[in-house]
Amino acid sequence: MDGAFAAEELGLALNNASLPPEALRYDVTPLGLHYTLSHFDIPALKASHRLTVEGAVQRPRAFSAADLRALPQKTVRTTMECAGNGRAGMTPRYPSMPWTSGAVATAEWTGVPLAALLGQVRPVPEAVEVAFHGADLGFDSGVEHHYARSLAMRDATDEVLVAWAMNGQPLLPQHGAPLRVVVPGWYGMASVKWLTRIELLDRPFDGYQQVVGYQYRKAAGGEPVPVRHMKVKSLITPPGIPDWYTRRRLVERGQVELEGRAWSGAGVPVTRVELGVDGAWRDAEVFPPAEKYAWQRWRAVWNAVAGEHELACRATDAAGARQPPEPDWNMGGMGNNAVQRMPVTVR
Amino acid sequence: MDGAFAAEELGLALNNASLPPEALRYDVTPLGLHYTLSHFDIPALKASHRLTVEGAVQRPRAFSAADLRALPQKTVRTTMECAGNGRAGMTPRYPSMPWTSGAVATAEWTGVPLAALLGQVRPVPEAVEVAFHGADLGFDSGVEHHYARSLAMRDATDEVLVAWAMNGQPLLPQHGAPLRVVVPGWYGMASVKWLTRIELLDRPFDGYQQVVGYQYRKAAGGEPVPVRHMKVKSLITPPGIPDWYTRRRLVERGQVELEGRAWSGAGVPVTRVELGVDGAWRDAEVFPPAEKYAWQRWRAVWNAVAGEHELACRATDAAGARQPPEPDWNMGGMGNNAVQRMPVTVR
Q: Global pTM?
């Protein structure tokens, strides 16, 4: 990482919540430890909040909380990662939220499948996209807007949820209360919080966060590629104990149980995780996911000898994608799935 | 603030949670929005965890969760602020957690009053301090230690709690599960999390966080003054809407309802809050605290005209203490209760 961060970057780091690395130990991230990325203020929505579903539909309608709970519901355990996770590791660095590796977590979301909700309003055949509008309002690069994102109809599957509960409790304010979208397998920007309105469109959505934000761009004039599914990635649950200021780890010599998490996007499972010790790779044990969209645990035993070492882990998914040694640099600092390296001292 | 922050400072900002400023709107901070300051990793303690109370007592004993719940219990709403809150605003800046203003929140804690717990073990007359030992372990400035702090017997009052619930729910891991100390009216360092052991001492406690950390020091050779109660302070709930990157606020012209929070330490109420607009001060309305140790709401109406403005607020407590215009600088960056200044643009 570059040595110096701007006051604005610090401000964003303070305004959003990062998963403390030791919290990788939990299969389901406890309340309050799940990462957050809020573009603007957390809105104060009332319990009487209603969700409008309108646009290219035959029967536009506003749904109360009770209306939604009367529809079919399901609970999905899903790992969600911010598209900007790892941005602090890209040089030069885009001026934005300077995530290191903690913008990822796993939760159990309960809500109505989007397909069931859309069945209530009957999209017309011309509908090609579903846009989700949040209540959060502010500026980005001089453009005033409510946060909003869309999905193509083919992506608006039964697996997308309009959720009102997280880990069995009503959504907390910072996670979208009272209602949010959850799009499993995608980077987090698709999972719009504080949902006020679903709009069926007969044309592609042109909101700021859809066409300007969340694009992979190699150069200012270059062709943008939309950010979509998460990429294959893995992290190490830090062994040993930390130093307060540097967070450098101190580990006892001998047989050390190492473990961590691995995930990919679009419901593709991780099939291989390798542990790197001082540059030498060997296979770790990787466990199946508890559910299709949940991260997987990996473990390996390391015979640690006294001295300075570098640990690393590298995942490969069932589609053959493998983490690269270095970030695939892009202007916005999106989608960094480079191998994590963790220096440790063994005593 | 200085323009440049070190990677280690960013790492701490990511590892701890800051109250988003708009969350000042809640009388009681919702779960997951309360600030956290964890010196080391969040420990993974089991439900079978027992609390040992020992040392200068007649009847040392280990308490299970059920044992503790059989004792008298109470719920206290208390505002807690980190002693380092505002550190980022002190120049030169101590290399530590670079809080701006968000290391404060209010929660309802449920537990057994310390006096009732100590009644079970009967401290001997020679006992002068109560030390609280946490399970969290790591290094600070080369010293390996479990986080631990003490209170003099005169401070170990009935108002100190050994708490197992926050906002009516079992403690979350990051807030000390399954058991923590809550010392109302003090800066947060006194409220030891992940409590494993209470030790009655016939001499002052000499732990690192007691005698080295959490001291006001003007110079390396100078006499340290222990950090104790919170100082009088107030904050503004940001009006209008933010810009994503700068968090600069944009406010609509006209009658603007401004509000915020004010608190002091040791249960002393705030008696006056002044609103500053472009350097001119006038009284705001300040409401009584919901409970002795809870922050107080203040409000004022501002007739905002288009242009650039600076808002500020300044509290005075019943003991006559008033917020200073500039921080009372000290080496560790502790106890910054300088007046908050908030630039806003009115359109």
A: 0.97
Out of A17, A25, A40, whose CB is closest to B244?
A40
Alpha-carbon gap: B86 to the closest alpha carbon of chain A (Å): 12
DSSP H helices, chain B, are: 7-15, 65-69, 114-121, 208-211
* Chain B neighbors of A96, CB-CB under 8 A: 245
ipTM: 0.97
Q: Is the pLDDT of residue B1 over 80?
A: no
- Residue A329 pLDDT: 96
Q: For residue B151, which of B196, B175, B184, B122 has the smallest C-alpha distance?
A: B184
Q: What is the pLDDT of residues B15-46, one digit of tens each?
A: 999 999 999 999 999 999 999 999 999 999 98
- For chain A, list residues with pLDDT below 50: none
Q: How high is the pLDDT of residue A96?
A: 97
| Overall average pLDDT of the B233-241 stretch | 98
Query: Which chain A residue has its CA at the smallest distance from B237's CA?
Result: A41
Residues of A whose CB is below 8 A from B244? 39-40, 138-141
Q: Which residues of A touch B7 (CB under 8 A)?
A: 1-3, 5, 88
Omega before B178 cis (within 30°)? yes
> Nearest by CB to B5, which of A4, A42, A44?
A4
B212, burial (CB in 10 Å: exposed 0-12, middle 13-18, buried 19+)? middle
Res. B317: pLDDT tops 70: yes
DSSP B87-111: GGGSSS--SS----S--EEEEEEEE
Residues of chain A contacting B94 with CB distance shorter than 8 Å = none
pLDDT at residue B259 greater than cutoff 60 = yes
Distance from CA of B188 to the nearest CA of A (A): 17
User: What is the chain B residue with the closest CA to A241?
Assistant: B138
**CA gap B142, A244 in Å, rounded:** 10
pLDDT at res. B220? 82
Nearest to A242, CA basis, from B138, B38, B7, B43: B138
Average pLDDT of span B101-105: 98
Q: Which two tokens stand for residue B213?
A: 């950390």
A301 CA to centre of own chain: 29
Structural contact between residues B301 and B87, judged by C-beta atoms closer than 8 angstroms: no
Q: Quote the pLDDT of residue A144.
A: 98
Tell which of A144, A209, A244, A259 to mutate to test the B interface (max B CBs under 10 Å).
A244
| Domains of chain B and any CATH numbers | 7-226 (3.90.420.10), 233-346 (2.60.40.650)
Q: Exposed, middle or buried by CB within 10 Å (0-12, 13-18, 19+), for A62?
A: exposed
